[in-house]
Amino acid sequence: MICESVILAAGFGTRMKSNAPKVLHRLSEKPLIWWAVRLAQEATGRLPTVVVGPEMEEIRDVLDDGVHYVEQNQRLGTGHALLQAATSLTGKSDLVLVTLGDMPLLKVETLKKLIETQEQNEGPMTLLTANVKHARQFGRIVRNENGLIQGIVEEADASLEQLKITEVNPSVYCFEANWLWDTLPSLPISAKGEYYLTDILEIATRQDFKVASMEVEEEEEIIGINNRVHLAEAQAVLRERINRDWMLSGVTILDPDTTYIGPEVEIGKDTTIMPNTTLEGKSIVGEDCSLGPNSYIRQSIIGDGCKVFMSMMEGATLEDEVDIGPFAHLRKGAYLCRGVHMGNFGEVKNSRLGPGVKMGHFSYVGDTSVGENTNVSAGVITCNYDGKNKHETEIGENVFLGSDTMLVAPLRVGKGARTGAGSVVTKDVPENTLVAGIPARAIRKVEESE
Q: How confident is the model at residue 447 (pLDDT cuts 50, 70, 90)?
């Protein structure tokens, strides 16, 4: 059967106390609506339809192309929101899955099981239910003496006896499509002038249909985000899930409570992640690496056998067997080839360090290519900015840059060259030449034996 999905995301979320729509608040890097779209797409195999409010154009900017949007011009309740999708979806599928934009912890397996339950149901709808310790203001499921669902009573309207009911309605449904689109226009209007989707259940029972249900296995799945406290609760659950999955996949995480791994990160087996380490973006980490403690890695690629000790990487790449830190900073465009060592308090930006390069502490290399087996001593600085433009530096193979050397770009240092400590190099250095001084001048040729 073909199943389309609709995500209700038109609510502004006033309890978030924010200028941004609720579904744009971030959970593990991604906005809530991203999680909802991902879940619906994986459950149905099709991109969902998202119902948004009139002022929520920015939601479209954070989602992939192909997601269909419909607008709820007036916020007249959940039933009215779903009705906005009728024109575009009528006749397109056998089933319709309805989820919320603020419930990111549902599992794909749960939604698939809900769809399968409706496929086997002779009635027009199946709703997800949960038996919970904390009702979280969800409506209560009312059943008759035979255990059949008779209705849903909202918490504000529930009697004291009904408030004792532990089975709740998280507002996740799967409908027979034709029945849904035919029935939605007949929803009653509430005293507040709104149309509630929960009232569709009463219509189904009046038509002598049996309403099916499927109970969610874990209560944490139905944590809805209504305020910042809920957001923090969901973050804790998601962090535990992600870390657990990686540990079961062969990654050692010494302290899961202080380790944050984004949803798009990839990690090889036998890698160890130490406390207070964060991996974000589409970072890729190889096998047998050691990351942390206290490291931050974003949108970076790390090869096999690397060590990132108490350091920061943003948009950088390490080939195999590279070690950096402590307190190293790799900025966007930094590329360290196999076997590079980078000491403490070093910084690399938009530069390539060739195989076997040793870069000492307190150094800065920017807009530079460094040849194989070159030594960048402590305090070496590439002066790549003249106040208006950035300029490039080219350093050859087997070069030795003395401590506190300043290389004023644009500049080329030939292979085998050397600089004396404290030199200010303003002109190209020929191959196998020692320069020193301020400004640096050629002193002599460097013998191969040196």
A: confident
Distances (CA, A) of 261 to 238, 272, 278, 299, 331: 10, 13, 6, 12, 20
Q: Is the pLDDT confidence value at 257 over 90?
A: yes
Region 14-36: mean pLDDT is: 92
Question: Can the peptide bond before residue 31 be classed as cis, meaning omega within 30 degrees of 0?
Answer: no
Compute the 3-state secondary structure of the chain and give helix, strand, coil in percent, each to the nearest 5.
Answer: 20, 30, 50
Structural domains in the chain?
A: 3-222 (3.90.550.10), 228-445 (2.160.10.10)
Question: 361 an active-site residue?
Answer: yes
Could you give the CA distance from residue 208 to residue 202 in angstroms, rounded to a whole number?
A: 10
User: Which tens digits make up the pLDDT trace of 229-254?
Assistant: 999 999 999 999 999 999 999 999 99
Q: Which long-range contacts (CB under 8 A, 24 or more apart) does 75-78 make?
A: 75/10, 75/11, 75/12, 76/193, 76/194, 76/195, 77/190, 77/192, 77/194, 77/195, 77/196, 77/197, 78/8, 78/171, 78/195, 78/196, 78/197, 78/198
Q: Give 325-363 pLDDT, tens digit per residue.
A: 999 999 999 999 999 999 999 999 999 999 999 998 999
The model's pTM is 0.89
First to last CA, the chain: 76
| Residue in 25, 68, 361, 391 annotated catalytic | 361
